[in-house]
Amino acid sequence: MQVFNKYLIAMRRFFLILLFALFTIGITVYYFRVPLTLTIGKQILTEEQGLLECLDWSVDSWDRLAIERLCWRSDGITVELSNATFDGDHLQVGSMSVVHRAVETASDTEVAHTPAPLQLDLPEGMPTLQIEALTVSSFLLPAPLNLSVTQRDDFAFTISGDVEADIDLYDTELLSALKLSSPAVQNVLRQANLPVEVSALTGVVETRFDGLTVNADIQLQSTLSYALPQCQPEIQVNGVISGRWDLSSQSGKVDLSQLPADVSVPECESLLAKLPQSWQNSLWSAQWRAQVTEPVTLNADKVRLPELRVSDGNGVTSVTLSDLTYQVTGQQVRSKLMLSHQSDALNLLKAQVDMLLAGTQLDSKGTVTLEVAQAPAELPVNWQDLTLRSEFALLGTVTEQLNLTFAVQPQAQTVTAENLSLEALSTRLSGQATFDVAKQDVSATKAPFALLQWQLNSDVERYLISGVQGRNLSITGHGDINAMLAATVHSDIRVGSFKRQEVRGKDLHQQLEFRGQLHSEGPVGKLTGNSVIELLAHPQLVLRDVEMRTSGSIAGSEQLALNHTLTLDNLELQLAHRLEAGLMPFTLTLADHGLGALQSLASQFVPKLKIEQGLINAQVTGELTRQAFDFEMNVDDAAFLYEHHYVSELDLPMKGKWHAGELMIEPAPLSITEVRSGAVLTDVQGQITSDSNMPVLRQFRANVFGGQLAAEQILLSKQDQEILVTASDLDLMLISEAGRESGVELHGQVSGRLPVFIRNGQAEIRDGYLSNVVDSMLKVEDNASFNALKAQRPELQTVFGVLDELSIETLSADVNMAQDGQLELAVKIAGENKQQKQPVNFNYTHSENIYTLFRALRLSDEITQEVEKALN
């Protein structure tokens, strides 16, 4: 018994010592709990699992731990939590911070991930979790997220704060639902600098992940607005986006067919303000709808949008983007864009563009077709059945050089405008342009292209342009323009026929060439050209094979200087004209030419005129807009034949001007050595001048029949006039010789006045009067007419006898001539036959056609006959 008591005492002492030791160990462990826990954690966690950097915990009560601070870090993530408690069933975290950093990973260390079905094998009876304040920071986020997390069921969590979402974990799938109204989502949209303003964005993004596929359904409702200077279109989006991504095949699709976009542009009609009203009404629609009818497919190498269709609310206009494909390999983009419109105003508008961009290589082609039966009324031009077809191609390297080729072909049955009418118009304008995209110094160039080359072909069957009408107008041309706007233009114009009032012509061919620089104020450079007209006709003038050469310079749209050389037969005219400051000064010069060069022209105005010799030069200077001209003409040693009238050695230097509708000719001396018109006029003199806008001949005088004829003024026009011709000292002997009456001698001189009246181009003399200046003598000897008269009247032998030799003291004659040239003379003679000492007074009348007489004289004029033979 005593031994048993000793054993009990020994055992009690042992347990007391053991209890004390355990208590001491427990106190020691609890005291050193933090370093011990960190040491154990570092030993348990591998390098891939991260590093436990801090842990401060305590026992809050007999069944709850308090974690004041816990720090954990891996290569890309740092987690720190504080003020947490854990009672075995629930983990309550007061504050938690998660920082995500970018990690550089060598490409050779990347680990391939093979998709597999999700098998989480979630344990049952896991403690619940609640995080009151969670801050998530990442280089992928524009700003840290402030969140709170609540566990609403086993592995089902609700996130609130900057992001509002639900997350559900199952053994084989992960479900999430994100509200688009979350502040973080709204903030991202605000900071994204999108071209559209997003407002009233609501909806939910629901995703399902099973390890192999990701399925998403987005219920979306939003309003988008796009600010333009004239208006602000709105886009209403309300529908569902469905998507699927297969991790195994790295492919997926997005179905947008249930997400139509309604575009409202109620105040944007001003965008079409420059179009005619009927076209605006046809093209304009306040409502549009955009819709993707087929799913978008995508994989690791390619994204394809089958079709995006935009149509207006009127059902007349549609725009379709089809087969939009982006291929990652080769960085290739392919698409087709089509526009279609049909209405009463625009019968057909169709456009198509095919585009392929492979890396930096662009290959784009397109066509445009426009058909409009009739032009809108408000346009200054009208047409019937207009068709316009165009095509283009844009090829090249987008980072270096692009080449554009184009062709535009308008055709119309008729085109009319003010002073313009074209029938059966057919035109083709084509060209090529090169764009140097890689050129750095853009300021060194003046054009967006490096080189532009163009070709033009236009044909019109009938035309009317500014009063000129005709057939078969053809215009062809080509040219080029470089980056510095240096340009060359070649044009070729052919006209089958043309007519303006009484002027008509055919087969006009004109070639022009311009070389120079293009400026905003107009072209600057040199212009050369050549024109040929086979026929140019007027009722009074016909010209054939007229050639004109042109050269000069252009300095802007309001300044030019051109020189033209006009060649016709042997005649050459020089025309120099300018355009400057709105004025059009010019100089027309005819250099020294033989008068014979004018024969073809003169004979058309005066068919009976034959030019023998002479020299002529002329010059006209002036300003067209003011209708102010100065002219000068010199005719020297001219000789010509008109019918049988011969004029020789005509000299006329003449100067004058035409200002403000008024003709002013400086007095110019007219000198003609001889005029042979039956009667021979010599030393013809006068002054050419002007009066009341008409040319006149003043101080006219001419020697004839040994005397002189003179007139103060003769109008050189077709208007009716009265001319008082004075006759001085006309030799009766010469006059009688002109009468070809043999056996009659008449000596003496007469003077007088002859009032000449010209009506409708016909001359007549009324109440003319001639009288002798000195005593005269009449001698009749063996005159056939006189002898016949004496034989008929024997009883008058005595009377006729006193006329054999009569000294005339007074001789006077009243002179009248009709327009047909019939001359009537009423002669009064008073004298004496001195042999018979017999005074004589008698009156007689004489009638003869002066034109017939002069014609007979001309026929006997040997000089005139020789000239006629030479000229004919």
Overview of this structure, please?
By secondary structure, the protein is mostly beta strands. Among the domains are: 575-699, no CATH class; 720-872, no CATH class. 12% of the residues lie in helices and 62% in strands. It contains ten helices and 49 strands. A six-stranded antiparallel barrel has the order 12-13-16-17-15-14. Strand 41 (707-715) and strand 42 form a beta hairpin. The longest helix has 30 residues, at 2-31. It starts with a helix and ends with a helix. 11% of the residues are buried.
Brief sketch in words of this structure:
The chain has 872 residues and is mainly beta. It has ten helices and 49 strands. The protein is rod-shaped, with a radius of gyration of 59 Å.
Features:
mainly beta, about 60% strand, 10 helices, about 850 residues, 49 strands, rod-shaped, about 10% helix, six-stranded antiparallel β-barrel
Percent helix, as a range, is 10-25%
Largest sheet: 6 strands, antiparallel, barrel
The helix tally amounts to 10
Shape summary: rod-shaped
Topology of helices and strands:
Elements: H1 2-31, H2 33-44, E1 51-61, E2 64-73, E3 77-86, E4 90-100, E5 128-138, E6 145-153, E7 156-161, E8 165-169, E9 174-179, H3 183-191, E10 197-209, E11 213-225, E12 234-246, E13 251-255, E14 261-264, H4 277-283, E15 287-292, E16 296-299, E17 302-312, E18 317-327, E19 332-341, E20 348-358, E21 361-374, E22 381-397, E23 401-417, E24 420-436, E25 451-465, E26 468-482, E27 486-500, E28 503-519, E29 522-538, E30 541-555, E31 559-568, E32 571-580, E33 585-594, H5 599-605, E34 609-623, E35 628-642, E36 645-659, E37 662-665, E38 668-677, E39 679-691, E40 694-704, E41 707-715, E42 721-731, H6 732-738, E43 744-747, E44 749-759, E45 762-772, E46 776-780, H7 784-792, H8 797-801, E47 805-817, E48 822-833, E49 838-849, H9 850-859, H10 862-871
InterPro entries: YdbH
Keywords: Membrane, Transmembrane, Transmembrane helix
Pfam families: YdbH-like
